[in-house]
Automatic annotation (TrEMBL):
<keyword id="KW-0032">Aminotransferase</keyword>
<comment type="pathway">
    <text>Amino-acid degradation.</text>
</comment>
<dbReference type="InterPro" id="IPR005814">
    <property type="entry name" value="Aminotrans_3"/>
</dbReference>
<feature type="binding site">
    <location>
        <position position="328"/>
    </location>
    <ligand>
        <name>pyridoxal 5'-phosphate</name>
    </ligand>
</feature>
<feature type="binding site" description="in other chain">
    <location>
        <position position="270"/>
    </location>
    <ligand>
        <name>pyridoxal 5'-phosphate</name>
    </ligand>
</feature>
<dbReference type="GO" id="GO:0009447">
    <property type="term" value="P:putrescine catabolic process"/>
</dbReference>
<dbReference type="InterPro" id="IPR015424">
    <property type="entry name" value="PyrdxlP-dep_Trfase"/>
</dbReference>
<dbReference type="GO" id="GO:0033094">
    <property type="term" value="F:putrescine--2-oxoglutarate transaminase activity"/>
</dbReference>
<dbReference type="GO" id="GO:0019477">
    <property type="term" value="P:L-lysine catabolic process"/>
</dbReference>
<comment type="subunit">
    <text>Homodimer.</text>
</comment>
<feature type="modified residue" description="N6-(pyridoxal phosphate)lysine">
    <location>
        <position position="296"/>
    </location>
</feature>
<keyword id="KW-0663">Pyridoxal phosphate</keyword>
<comment type="pathway">
    <text>Amine and polyamine degradation; putrescine degradation; 4-aminobutanal from putrescine (transaminase route): step 1/1.</text>
</comment>
<comment type="similarity">
    <text>Belongs to the class-III pyridoxal-phosphate-dependent aminotransferase family. Putrescine aminotransferase subfamily.</text>
</comment>
<dbReference type="InterPro" id="IPR050103">
    <property type="entry name" value="Class-III_PLP-dep_AT"/>
</dbReference>
<dbReference type="InterPro" id="IPR015422">
    <property type="entry name" value="PyrdxlP-dep_Trfase_small"/>
</dbReference>
<keyword id="KW-0808">Transferase</keyword>
């Protein structure tokens, strides 16, 4: 490993890091040095697990794939100069693209003026963003609590529901199987995935899970328990694998909540901000939640920010003492500037409608591939630009995502959960890119068919380890993926 990174004093660590930050481009030697340091520091100081997880997918072999910069709205570049079409979108962060100029400009102006608030005077951007949220969100949603992440937006929603419902003797929560709401203890109690929960048992008391999309199960549950404070749902499950409930489900859930006095919390951390073809996914069914959770793309891919929007009736539990639930950085000026610019871009360019349109084209293409390669694929599904390819097995999906990476298309592929590959590009993705992605997917699947007819002879994912040295790792992208055509 790099000798430079060894035995540095803390001051030298920072000096070196500042040098990297200031650099716009890298020579070959600098690239190797930086990549070595990054690999080493991940192994020694971040978490060696990440290295194993990502290294095996990437082309850079022992040098891994270390990202360097965003290039266009829809592409990013690694330290070796390879440009990737981003079909992952940071799992729903980059709805307005990477470094959207309007978002950057707002943040840069605010940065020059006042990055963080005094915590004592009234900060103007919080007020302007809260008003914007009241106007853009459905129905009677009005007051907003700001935080820094999706998990925190869910925590605030749970606490709001508890404070509102406690005097009514309601304390329980109902979530759904396959749900993802974040990983702090409160949010994790609503999250369903056993692997994330198991080491931290017991969870908070009073959390139950019913099958997602099954209105009968929810009805039985809500009628059996009269003390349910709230039902918490994603309109479309994201982490769960882009699971779309039956038509009419959300409407029926809303009616059941009204009937039984449970609040409806919609977690639109991933489905919100235009992702599914409407500004918020609940608009597909005209459903209004009592509490709405937002984050991810709310910060325009530039700043982290979470928001919990509630009706006045519910939010008023915080009126007497606004310090009941607070966070130092939540709703800071930089984050609010980013979110205000993000809404401006989404609305003025009607990106939700664009997501619907382009999502149609992409999904039609992916569905065609699913039909053409039934030995690998179960189906393609999605709404707007929240899509997924479901493969027959983990190792097949893993081989696909690895292939796409080599064709310079970034899709998520994890060793343990590659059966469903999510495709969530920026809503700014062009039709041309959509066709390039489909072309790459076709080539990858065709190559897989030649290499593994009938999909019988894939290596176990754990056995796949690319150790190609950096010198021979010339771009292997097909011609349409050459970086010149990506600008
Ligand atoms: C990502 C996600 C979260 C958690 O958000 P973080 O910003 O990672 O804390 C919560 N809910 C849903 C639906 C998500 O997709």
């Amino acid at each position: 490993m790099s000798s430079i990174s060894d035995n540095l004093t803390p001051l030298e660590c920072t000096q070196q890091a500042l040098k990297w930050i200031e650099k716009k481009t890298l020579t070959q030697d600098e690239m190797i040095d930086l990549n070595n340091q990054v690999m080493n520091n991940f192994k020694e100081y971040v978490n060696p697990g990440f290295l194993e997880y990502r290294k095996s997918v990437t082309v850079g072999g022992d040098y891994g794939a270390v990202e360097w910069r965003a290039s266009g709205l829809n592409t990013l570049v690694d330290t070796q100069g390879r440009e990737y079409i981003d079909c992952l979108g940071g799992f729903g962060i980059f709805n307005v693209g990477h470094r959207n100029p309007k978002v950057l400009s707002a943040v840069e102006h605010q940065l020059a003026k006042q990055p963080l608030h005094s915590q004592e005077l009234l900060d103007p951007l919080r007020a302007l963003l809260a008003k914007t949220l009241a106007a853009v969100t459905p129905g009677k949603l009005k007051y907003t609590f700001f935080s820094n992440s999706g998990t925190e937006s869910v925590e605030a929603a749970l606490k709001l529901a508890k404070a509102y419902q406690a005097p009514r003797g309601k304390f329980r929560f109902v979530a759904t199987s396959g749900a993802f709401h974040g990983k702090t203890l409160g949010a994790l109690s609503a999250t369903a995935k056993a692997a994330f929960r198991q080491p931290f048992m017991p969870m908070l008391p009073g959390f139950d899970h019913v099958p997602f999309g099954d209105i009968d199960a929810l009805r039985v549950h809500l009628r059996a328990y009269s003390d349910v404070a709230a039902v918490i749902l994603e309109p479309i499950q994201g982490e769960g694998g882009v699971i779309i409930p039956p038509a009419g489900y959300l409407t029926a859930v809303r009616a059941l909540c009204d009937e039984t006095g449970a609040l409806l919390i919609l977690d639109e951390v991933q489905t919100g901000m235009g992702r599914t073809g409407k500004m918020f996914a609940c608009e597909h069914e005209g459903v209004q939640p009592d509490i709405l959770c937002l984050a991810k793309a709310l910060g325009g891919g530039v700043m982290p920010i979470g928001a919990t929007v509630a009706t006045e009736e519910i939010f008023s539990v915080l009126f007497d003492n606004p310090f009941l639930h607070t966070t130092t950085f939540g709703g800071n000026p930089l984050a609010c500037a980013a979110a205000l610019a993000t809404f401006n871009v989404l609305l003025s360019e009607d990106l939700p409608a664009q997501a619907a349109q382009k999502g149609h084209v992409l999904l039609a293409g992916l569905s065609r591939l699913a039909a053409d390669y039934p030995e690998f694929l179960v189906e393609a599904r999605g709404r707007g630009l929240m899509q997924a390819l479901e493969f027959r097995r983990n190792d097949i999906g893993y081989a696909f995502s690895q292939g796409m990476f080599r064709h310079q298309v970034l899709v998520a592929g994890t060793l343990n959960n590659a059966k469903t590959i999510r495709i969530e590009p920026p809503l700014t993705i062009t039709l041309e890119y959509c066709h390039q992605v489909l072309g790459a997917a076709e080539r990858v699947l065709a190559a897989m068919r030649i290499n593994a007819p009938g999909a019988h002879v894939f290596m176990k994912p754990t056995a796949i380890a690319v150790t190609t040295p950096i010198k021979t790792a010339a771009p292997v992208g097909v011609a349409v993926m050459a970086s010149a055509s990506l600008r």
